[in-house]
Amino acid sequence: MIEGMTPFVMTDACPCGRQQQKKPIPFSQCCGRWLETVFPALDADCLMRSRYCAFVLERAPYLLKTWHASHRPASIEFDPGVKWLGLEVRSHTVLDATHAEVEFVARQKPVSGPAVRLHERSRFVLESGHWLYVDGDAL
Ligand SMILES: [Zn+2]
């Protein structure tokens, strides 16, 4: 946990916003299953959501681990003071056994200026039993 951040606990509602019977799912039963353990995310949708949480919680090692080597940056810098406002997964398309796409809208609020909407179609590939983020097109 980064110093100065609001303490986040496993029983809090998952930042990815997933719901079950119209109730938020606790982080421990949602993206925490992948972020806090060695188990690989079940599918590209789960990976996408857990990576959003990793941005919210500033977990650079998880983001690097789940980034395909062909596009992985050397390091990740988090913009200080950014507030993530929410994630909306628009679609999850399984292309074949090892390729999938996820379209999402994530919203964030920089320290200064208006909220920003990130709308992207991301590509994911399954390698050695692990879904990995490859890259995406801004929409
Ligand atoms: Zn989640």
Detailed description of the structure:
It is a single chain. The protein has 139 residues and is an alpha+beta fold. The protein has a single domain, classed as Roll (Nuclear Transport Factor 2, Chain: A), CATH 3.10.450.50. The protein has 3 helices and 6 strands; from the N terminus they run ββαααββββ. The chain has helices at 32-35, 44-56, 60-65, and strands spanning 19-20, 23-24, 83-96, 99-109, 116-127, 130-138. The longest helix has 13 residues, at 44-56. The mean pLDDT is 93. The structure holds zinc ion. Residues 14, 16, 18, 30-31, 49, 53 line the site of zinc ion (ZN).
Summarize the structure.
The protein is built from three helices and six strands. The protein has 139 residues and is α+β, with helices and mostly antiparallel strands.
CATH class (first level) name? Alpha Beta
- Which strand order does the major sheet show? 3-4-5-6
The bound ligands are: zinc ion
> How would you state the average pLDDT, rounded?
93
Compute the number of strand runs.
6
Dominant shape = globular
Summing up helix and strand content along with how strands pair, one would put the structural category as alpha+beta
Strand coverage percent: 35-45%
Spell the H/E element sequence.
Answer: EEHHHEEEE
CATH-derived topology: Nuclear Transport Factor 2, Chain: A
Uncertain runs: none
CATH second-level architecture: Roll
Rounded Rg: 15 Å
The end-to-end distance, rounded to whole angstroms, is 32 Å
